[in-house]
Amino acid sequence: MTQNSSSIRLQLAPQILGVLAVIASVLIVIFLPWPFLIVLFVIGVVYIRLLFSKIKTIRDQTITQHTELLQEQHERNEAATLMKLLIDAADIPIMATDDQGCITHSNRNAQQMLRLNEDIIGLRFDELFTQQVLHDLERHAREGEQGHAKLSFPIVGEMREFDVSADPVVAQKYHMLHGAVLTFKDITELSLAMTLKADFVANASHELRTPIASIKGAAETLAGPARNDEGMSTRLIEMITSNAARLELLAIDLLDLSKLESQDQSPDIQEINLQNLISKLINESMQAATRRGLEVVSEVSNEVNQIQTDPVLLSLILRNLVQNAIKFAHEDTTIKITVEPDSISHDRTIPIPDSLVGSMGIRIRVIDKGIGIPITQQQRIFERFFQVDDARSGSSAKRGTGLGLAIVKHASKRLGGTVSLESVYREGSTFIIELPRCIQTNLD
Ligand code: ADP
Prior knowledge:
Bound molecules: adenosine-5'-diphosphate
Largest sheet: 5 strands, antiparallel
CATH superfamily of the largest domain: Histidine kinase-like ATPase, C-terminal domain
Order of helices and strands: HHEEHHHEEEHHEHEEHEEHHHEE
Strand content: 15-25%
Number of helices: 12
CATH architecture of the largest domain: 2-Layer Sandwich
Helix content: 40-55%
Distance between the termini: 89 Å
Radius of gyration: 42 Å
């Protein structure tokens, strides 16, 4: 302001001074002797030079200030654009509010999370969310208090769990509070995994504890009261052996499951002869099947005899299904394994191993006439450690680890396929494995 008025004064000064100088010159020329005239002329010239240099300095200063202002404005615009790009690139929803609680920034993820198409800038934060916890978090952050909370809210009808952090935003220049910034981390899958892990550990330790307790009890009785009782000793040794076998089975299943769940190894896809693989499995289970008067037969369509798959994973799937069928089929019935080609549209959420190049798939069915699975339990049958009550309380020959079908599900998934079940309680079960794109040559 003072600089502006002084520059106006300086801009007018030369004109006034010019007029005064003309008048003075006329008077001086008329009245003053020439030596004075020379001195005055020199003073005038020096003054005018000083005046011009002052004007130049002020003009230069004004130009510099203007350029600096433009530069600052440009930098601020660039910073704002960069900030927008950065928060848009963040893969979690972020929102910022001003000191009044109105949204000033929000990234694409926040917009998607809220499923809002219109711009939310300018809206009040507490009108966007109904949860009091969130309102409090945002308000406290605006007042300078950092905080975070875990809470669930529905996103398109599905409850999702979020870890929300709220931080105060402090204006750098005056160290004043400016608003709040909130980040929403979706932890739904993480908490589900934590719950599953906790359940898994609890179930596994329960399953391990039972045979260990039996072995311990039997060994103590053997060493004490049953030492000289031959009949009792034989029974106890049998008990130890069967429980040790159960422990071994559990260890094998746990290892299989853990290998399948850790995605380290990709399937080893090879060209295999399906009929040979199935015949080998049938031979393996012949003894157990004959013990119950069962027959295991296969029907493999010629078109699918040569397929592209991981033989270890496929054997793991079929072995578990056949073993279950042998356990749960009614005595003297037939267990059937059928394979047919099919143009199975694979579920996009399940990635197909890269090396599977064909366009056709296969459908394998393992069919038994047995105790079946009640409809109410069919949903949960592929969960780890889940056993239908009949199987839990049945004879020890039937009692498994409860991991077999979880292994089948994971192994099918690794091959880019799926497993499903059709079962009628007390009549029988059919487990269906669908493996997409494992036949190399197209069928016409
Ligand atoms: P398990 O080791 O107990 O067999 P699985 O995961 O293989 O564990 O099977 C889980 C449960 O599903 C079994 O305990 C049994 O109750 C039921 N089940 C599996 N296969 C069959 C079948 N073919 N017929 C009837 N019930 C079955």
